[in-house]
Amino acid sequence: MTAADAIVLAGTIHTLDPHKPGATALAIRDGRIAAVGSPADVEPFRGTGTMVHDFGDATIVPGLNDSHTHVVFGLELARGVQLTDLGPLAKVQRTIGDAAAAAKPGEWVIGWGLDPNLFTETGFNGRIFDPATGSVPMFLRMRDGHSAIVNSAALDAAGISGSVEFPDESVIDVDDAGRPTGYIVEFSAMDHVTKVIPQESFDVRAERLGTLLAGMAAVGITSTHVMDFAEGSAELVTQLETLGELPLRLRFSPMVNAGASLNELEEAAALQGTGGRRWRVEGVKFFIDGTIDNGSAWLEQPDAYGENHESVWTDPEDFQKALRYFVERGIPTATHAIGDQGVRYVLEALEASGDARHLAAHRVEHIETIPDDLVTRFAELGVAASMQPVHGTHHTRADRSDNWSVRLGPERAARGWRCRDLRDAGVTVALGSDWPITPYDPRAMMADSILRRPVESPGIAPVQPEQALTALMALEGYTSHAAAAAGLNSEWGSISVGKRADLTVFARDPLAVTPEELAGTAVLATLVDGVLP
To answer: Of 39, 52, 37, which is closest to residue 4 (Cα–Cα)?
Structure first.
C-alpha cells in the first residue's frame, strides 16, 4: 500500500457521505481522500514521510463552496466608499460630499452597496447629489449591482444628455423634459458611464484579488463558482499563480449577454476547460431578467409601479436559441432569473431542450419569487436552484415596508426565497453570497438561512420563517448540494474516498451550535488538495 501524504485527525468529521456518515480520521494521497474512518482505519496509510494534522476536538466538514460570487468583476463593483446599510439619505449625501471634497483633480467619487429604500420619497435621482459633489463626477452602484446613481458631472463626462438606445433592455432614465435623472439601469447603461471612469492598475487589482481570496479562505471557503469571466480574469489569476497557489478553487462561467451573437457564443464555448492549477472555465452564465428593486425583473404581472414585466432580452426567443447552443454541447448553464415569469421561461427553455439537458448540470440563479407550481417543476426537470437567502434577510422586512415587497405586493412577496419548499420537494439547493452584493462569510450566510433574519440583528423579525433551513440543509447548501449544482458531486462535496481533499476545519461543530454561535465559530484551517495554506 502506498503511504498517504497526510493523515488528518479531529473530534468529529461530518463526511456528508451517507455510506460513511461519521468519522474521526482520514488519509490523503495525491490530493484526494484515500481513507475515511477511525484512527485505526487510517493507520495502515502512515509512512515515514506522512504528515499528521491533529485538530483535537475540532470538527471537519467538506470544503465550503460559495456557489455565486464575482471575485474579479466584483473588484469593480466594490470600488470606493462602501455604502452598505448606510442611511438615511441625508447621511449618504454627507458621506459622498466629504469624499468629493477630498477628491483630487480628475478623480471620481465611487461608492457601492447603496440601498434603494433610501429613495422612497425622492424617487431614483442622481441630481439630488449635485449640491454635495459639485463638479466632481460621482458613480454610486446600488446594492443589487444592476443599477446606479450618477450626478450631473458624471453624465457630462459620459456625454449623456438624453435617452440612449441599447441592444438589450438597459435604460438611461430621463424626466418628462427628456433630461437624464442620473438613474441608470442594467449593465449596458452602466457601462456607458464606467468606461470613462479612471481604471485601477493591473497591479492594484491583482493585490486586491489576492487579499479577497485570502479573506474568503480565512472564513472557511475552499472554492467558489464565479458567475462571470470578466475581462482580465485570466491574467489576474495567472499572475497570482506565479506567486504561489491560490488559496481556493475558482470555477469561472463566462457571461452570455442579452442579444449575444453566434460569434460570442462560439467564443464562450471555446473557453471551456481552459485554466490554471486551481482555476478553470466551466459553464456559462445567462441573464433572463434584472432585479425587482430597480424594476427590471420579469414578473408574470407588472409590479405596483407598472414595472418588472420584461425580459432583459429584447426577444426572449433569442435566449432560448442561445441556451440550446450550450445545452446541446453538454456545457453547463446558469441563468439569473429573479421574477416568476423569468424563472418559468428558463425552466420551459430547458425542458424544450429535450434529453440534451441531461448532458450537463443546469441551474437557475436567485429565484426570488415563484408560485407553487414552479417549485415542483424544478424537481420534475432536475434543475438545481442556486440561491442567496441572505438577500431576503438583509434587503426585505417582515412588515413588508421595503421597496422589494411594496413592488410585489403581499401575495408575491410571501413567495420569496422559498429555500425550504424547494428542499422539501427534493430540489438541489446550492447557497452563496453573490459577493459583493452581500458579504461572503459562509458562517453568517448559513446562520441567516436558518434564522431567516440577519444573525447580527436579534431584534429584527424573521422574514418568512417557514422557509428556514435546518443546520444540515444549510451546510449541504455549501457542500454536497453546491457540488451537485455544478455537476461535480463525483469530485467533491463530501468526504469520500477518491474525492478531492478539500476540507474546512471548525473549532466547534456547526451542526451542534446555535445559528448565533455558528456565525462566530472560529475557522481553524482550510485544506485544498489536502494541503494547508
So the answer is: 52
